[in-house]
Amino acid sequence: MYSKLQYISQGETIEKQLYNIHQALDAGCNWVQMRFKNQTQKDAFTLAEAVKPLCEKYTANFIVNDDLHLTKEIDADGIHLGLTDTKIDEARAFLGTAKVIGGTANTFEDIENHVKNGCDYIGLGPFRFTNTKEKLSPILGLSGYFDILQKLKKDKLEIPVYAIGGITLRDVNPLMETGIHGIAISGIITESDEKEKLIQQLNEKLYANIIV
Ligand SMILES: Cc1ncc(COP(=O)(O)OP(=O)(O)O)c(N)n1
Ligand SMILES: Cc1nc(C(=O)O)sc1CCOP(=O)(O)O
Ligand SMILES: [Mg+2]
Question: Transmembrane residues, as ranges (predicted)?
Answer without folding.
Answer: none
